[in-house]
TrEMBL record:
It is found in: Periplasm. It comes from the Bacteria. InterPro entries: Bact_solute-bd_prot1, SBP. One of its GO terms (cellular component) is periplasmic space. Pfam families: SBP_bac_1. SUPFAM superfamilies: Periplasmic binding protein-like II (SSF53850). It comes from Maritalea mobilis. Residues 1-26 form the signal peptide. Coiled coil: none annotated. Keywords: Periplasm, Signal, Transport. This is Carbohydrate ABC transporter substrate-binding protein (CUT1 family). Belongs to the bacterial solute-binding protein 1 family.
Length: 429
């Protein structure tokens, strides 16, 4: 099977146009996923599709991939049409629950019997569940770490900062030692990297449980986002910009550009997800970096500091799909012992089913091995604002972070806007 025949990266607008105009074949299963430049990720998908088609004679998988921002904005529109995907990737959070709430994602509670529930516990469906019913299936986890230039820190007899006080000292020292290179990089033109920083910082000030209550609008309208920790988190990232922790022009730098700045020596660290290691390797930086958790914020409550930014990802089935049983078989295949192991080896996806992982320990990327060993040390995942936040507030927060970094608005002004919008949405529910 040629990858070009099964894996097509397109703009979502093109995909939507096709979805609205081309009827789905009787034995065609349409699967949507995020695009990737990783050869391992793409090879893994080719293997999975080949296995599924071999196990389901006469069925063809139409596999399409899209960039993240376009995907988020266009997925609901596609699902509302009559020819959207049968199976689609999503984040286990408000992103998936909102589709269930709007009748776009199928209830898969009964479909799990004899399928994915043979490989994972029912309690693991929580991030995709609402009112006691499952509307999606988790297939793997991701986490975000500080990747740092280990040679630079070793040569200068420096430990990577464990606290924010140490980090701000490093923000002053690193440019002097590294010929002007920044302590860390941030590509926030796409807005999602900045919100990763703010999510991690906010979780330390506000606490993960309190954040989730606000983000899902569970608190009373007048109490939403009023914890002073929200303002403190924005003040923190503004201080990072003011004190030169980042490279110049963060809001004009894309995420991919910031990664390239890191691997080329323009910054000595990069706050990035577990998917980033293979990208750094492709840029010639293999073996030159190590990972560490985001520094503990010195004036934040201690009980909030043992969390790592991350989440569970998986797949949902369209409520309009005419092939729900086939779709359930496809999702279940992703959780089988061998597929889970191979997704770890080739795609660096942290498995939920580790039955076969030990057989391939030597083949797993060293950084991912470190992550798998490190994750049990934390109390849980800190929530990510653009994933768990009510959808109508996401753009307000993301644009606002850019404005705070550039000094166009104050943390207090942004949070006042967030509070006002949250109250409107809550009162309209």
């Amino acid at each position: 099977m040629q990858l070009s025949k099964t894996l097509k990266t397109t703009a979502l607008a093109t995909g939507l146009g096709l979805a609205l105009s081309v009827p789905t074949l009787a034995q065609e299963l349409k699967v949507w996923e995020l695009s990737s430049t990783s050869e391992g990720v793409n090879q893994n998908w080719e293997d999975v599709i080949a296995q599924f088609e071999a196990e389901h004679p006469g069925v063809t998988v139409k596999f399409e991939t899209f960039d993240g921002e376009s995907y988020k904005k266009g997925l609901a529109v596609a699902l509302a049409s009559n020819n959207g995907p049968d199976v689609f990737f999503n984040w286990g959070s408000e992103d998936s629950i909102s589709l269930a709430r709007n009748g776009l994602a199928a209830d898969v509670s009964e479909l799990g019997e004899g399928r994915w529930l043979d490989y994972i516990g029912e309690e693991m469906l929580g991030p995709f569940s609402m009112d006691g019913k499952a509307y999606g299936v988790p297939t793997h986890s991701i986490a975000v770490y500080m990747y740092y230039n280990k040679d630079f820190f070793a040569e200068n007899n420096m430990d990577f900062p464990k606290t924010s006080d140490e980090m701000f000292e490093a923000c002053k020292k690193v440019p002097e030692m590294a010929g002007g290179s920044a302590f860390t990089v941030l590509g926030n033109k796409d807005q999602w990297r900045g919100i990763h920083y703010v999510s991690m910082i906010t979780s330390q000030y506000v606490g993960s449980e309190n954040m989730l209550k606000d983000m899902r609008l569970l608190n009373d309208a007048d109490e939403l986002f009023t914890d002073p920790g929200y303002v403190k988190a924005l003040e923190f990232i503004a201080r990072m910009e003011k004190e030169g922790c980042f490279q110049p022009g963060v809001n004009a730098t894309t995420a991919d550009m910031s990664d390239a700045i890191f691997t080329s020596g323009g910054g000595m660290s990069d706050y990035c997800g577990t998917w980033c290691a293979s990208g750094f390797d492709r840029q010639g930086f293999e073996g030159k970096y190590a990972i560490a958790p985001f520094p503990a914020i010195s004036d934040a409550p201690k009980e909030n500091q043992n969390y790592i930014l991350g989440l569970t990802e998986g797949f949902q089935i369209s409520a309009k799909s005419e092939h729900k049983e086939l779709a359930a078989d496809f999702v279940s295949l992703l959780l089988t012992d061998e597929v889970q192991a191979q997704r770890l080896v080739k795609a660096a996806r942290i498995p939920l089913n580790g039955a076969n992982v030990d057989q391939y320990a030597d083949e797993v990327h060293l950084t991912i091995q470190e992550v798998v060993a490190d994750l049990p040390n934390y109390d849980g995942f800190a929530p990510i604002l653009d994933v768990d936040l009510n959808g109508k507030l996401v753009d307000v927060y993301k644009r606002g972070i850019q404005d705070v970094i550039d000094g166009r608005t104050t943390p207090e002004e942004l949070m006042a806007t967030v509070q006002e919008e949250a109250r409107k949405i809550k009162n309209a529910m």
